[in-house]
Amino acid sequence: MDRPPVVALDEVSKSFGAVRALSGVSLRLLPGEAHALLGENGAGKSTLIKTLAGVHRPDSGRVEVDGSERRFSTPADALAAGIAIIYQEPTLFGDLSVAENVFMGRQPLGFGRRIDEAAMHARTSELFSRLGVRLDPARPARGLSIADQQLVEIAKALSFDARVIVMDEPTAALSAHEVQRLFGVVQALRAQDAAVLFVSHRLDEVFSLCQRATVLRDGEFVWSGPLTDETPDSLVRRMVGRELSQLFPKEDTAAGDVLLSVQRLTREGVFTDVSFDVRAGEIVALSGLVGAGRSEVARAVFGIDRPDGGSVHVRGRKLKYGSPTAAMAAGIGFVPEDRRQQGLVMDASIERNTALASLGRLSTFGLLRRSSERALAQDWAVKLRLKFAKLSDPVGVLSGGNQQKVVLAKWLARKPSVLIVDEPTRGIDVGTKAEVHRLLSELAGQGVAVLMISSELPEVLGMADRVLVMHEGRLVEELSRAEATEERVAMAAAGQAVTR
Amino acid sequence: MRNLLRWETALVFLLIVVALTGQVSTDGSFLSGGNLFYLGLDIGEIALIALPLTLVIVAGEIDLSVASVLGLSSALIGWLWNAGWSLELILPTVIVVGAICGAFNGFLVTKLGLPSLAVTIGTLALYRGLALVVLGDTAVADFPASYTAFGTTPVPGTNIPYPIVLAAILAVLFGVALHASSFGRSVYAIGANEEGARFSGIRVKRVKLILFVLAGAVAAIAGIVYTFRFSSARADNGLGLELAVVAAVLLGGVSIFGGKGSLFGVLAGVLLLGGLRNLLILQDTSTEVLTIVTGLLLLVSVLAPSITRRVGTLRKATP
Questions:
Q1: B196, A410: Cβ pair inside 8 Å?
Q2: How would residue A170 be classed by pLDDT, with cut points 50, 70 and 90?
Q3: Which of the residues A320, A344, A345 would you substitute to probe the B interface, choosing the one with the greatest number of B C-beta atoms within 10 Å?
Q4: Which of A128, A436, B125, B205 sits at a 20 to 30 Å CA gap from A413?
């Protein structure tokens, strides 16, 4: 392990206006290592990655590749130096083939300067086999899963002979199986002496994949070293700078009346015959792989999609199909999976977003009472400890965790009796995550029925009174808090449930 | 929001510039009471139609059939008048027909999920065609003077034409609807992020349908104004007027992509466009040039936001 680093950042600082995003941060990536970059949202991870990628130029400090200083002025410079970035959700050209995406702009040419498809496909297949995966080079990129799209990007990076591959939260949208395959790819990259910088909020993944880690907090370097002597708790302490007594503080509450009852709900080709109840004071987790139909069930319950059969009852009253308005009137709140597209209007202000689901209540004869709107936003901003400058600022300037708080505020302002939360803590930092968990627990304590969809097993096991597991559009397992273990949930999600 | 305010300030500034250069270059006749009266008459229909169209565009849709609805309503007035109906009955009928035309647009857009651009290009031809079927290429002109006076005389003691009074009243109503009501909030939310609006329980389809109905109804009212102003009901009345209306709305700072804009800006845009056209007419400019100027203004107003944004980022990049 005493080989010289492939890439080193030395005392790098970067400010945007008055905001110091990085101050004196150092990072060394050794050949053949998987290195975790850790920190809460706003710790400076993104800025550091963009500095490596040539998007930002550091105000001071050095970037070294193979021991000599380099100054990147464009992302192309960084790529030429062998540094490639794989973003969370790659943007491929959907109508072009996988191979054309890999060799975009550098397609091998044959006779008469025509693109030599055979050579391009062969070289793409070779790149995939180096990664130990199979993917048809000729198929169009459209319709590839996010996991496969990432593989295309990684193959593209390899085609540039990249020796440093930065993965920015690559697993956030992957299923457990896809995560395993990605880990295999990372091992293959390590075997070829590439360095992988792995950014993730999921500590279990960090421990199973990485050898060393670097921790940032508030733009400053906190710690870097091997993971052998570390535990998840010790890393969280370094990231947060304080003790987190318990990550998942769901308190036991006595379950009350059935508030939400879903009976034989079916949407053809998406999910089939899904039945479950959620009682007042309960948190019920809907678990399963990405694509098992969990979010789709939630969408149908809330009325975004129209089911083909079955029923949804709230407090014993049947809901109209396909009407979010009816679902809201019955007392359902829905914090959707995609905060930027579904949860918020990014250009609109904090107060407008907070008020968006309560417009009727904030109006007299259709005229909006501005003061009530502002008071509502102010009230919830304080209750949820939102970090913001002005309520009239667009939500787009907030960090991911604070954006999620605005979505929560928007729904809590309606005092829902049933709250559906889809991936409530995806991509938000550890501190805010704990706050969201405490909030959900409090809501259950106040008699709200909470249906939680989550891909994070520790969150599911820590928060849920009951765990429902879906596999390929069907509910295959129901586990009480006592029965739910990581193994049983994972087995059921993989379709190996002991029969119900 | 700050960008928008700056754009509106710029519009007001431009208006003053146009007024002053107009005043100087025409030796004082531009701002004379008589000319202002004609300017008001000239922009009456544009101002009326621009009001609902602003809401339609803020919601991220477009309605290009408005001028054809104007023509259809004019043709209907002539046909029904010839058939012996009284104007008291004709006018509400025409407005209802306009609303139905708008509802048909709205139905195709919301229930069938077709893009409004394609739908309303189709109905642009359809409604104009219906107008020709109704009235052919004849003109009906024998309306009573008590009605045509609405489009030809000012409010007693002022130089304000009646259509402008009507537009001003509607402007207040639409302004309140867009800027002070929960309905207006929904319109902005739909334009900025339709999916997000739906996930917030906003009845996206219903809001859009209402907007198209309003656009049709107000376009029909504009048809009534147009008919009385020229004392002439013709199927080709207002041909091509949609260009001027869309240009005025975009010039007023409304984003063609939806979600941004204000009614105040649009009113300034209407005045600016109308003022420029009037000034060019005073200087005996041909109608071809007028059309070219209108088209250029439309392009400039679509380009302006992206240019200012690029200048903005350049400035940020080089501190």
A1: no
A2: confident
A3: A345
A4: B205
In DSSP notation, A115-154 reads B-HHHHHHHHHHHHHHHT----TTSBSTT--HHHHHHHHH
Nearest CA in chain B to A342: B196
Label the pairing between strands A283-288 and A466-471: parallel
- Residue A245: per-residue pLDDT: 46
Res. A244 pLDDT band, cuts 50 70 90? very low
Q: What is the mean pLDDT of residues A136-145?
A: 88
Range(s) of the domain holding residue A296: 258-493
Last residue of a domain, one of A185, A208, A240: A240
Tell me, yes or no, whether A431 and A298 share the same domain. Answer: yes
Confidence bin at A431 (pLDDT 50/70/90): confident
CATH no. for residue A308?
3.40.50.300
If contacts are CB pairs under 8 Å, which of residues 190-209 in chain B contact chain A? Answer: 192-193, 195-203
Considering the domain architecture, whether residues A339 and A212 belong to the same structural domain is answered as no
The pLDDT of residue A492 is 84
Same domain assignment for residues A457 and A350: yes
Q: Give the number of C-alpha atoms closer than 13 A to the C-alpha of residue B208, restricted to the C-beta side.
A: 30
* Pair A224, A324 in one domain: no
**pLDDT over 90 (residue A232):** no
Could you tell me if A409 and A313 lie in one domain? yes
Domain at B2-317, CATH class = mainly alpha
Span B203-258, pLDDT tens digits: 999 999 999 999 999 999 999 999 999 999 999 999 999 999 999 999 999 999 99
Closest CA to A246 of A22, A50, A430: A430
Neighbouring residues of B261: CB distance < 8 A, sequence distance ≥ 6: B4, B54, B57, B58, B249, B252, B253, B254, B255
Q: What is the domain partition of chain B in residue ranges? A: 2-317
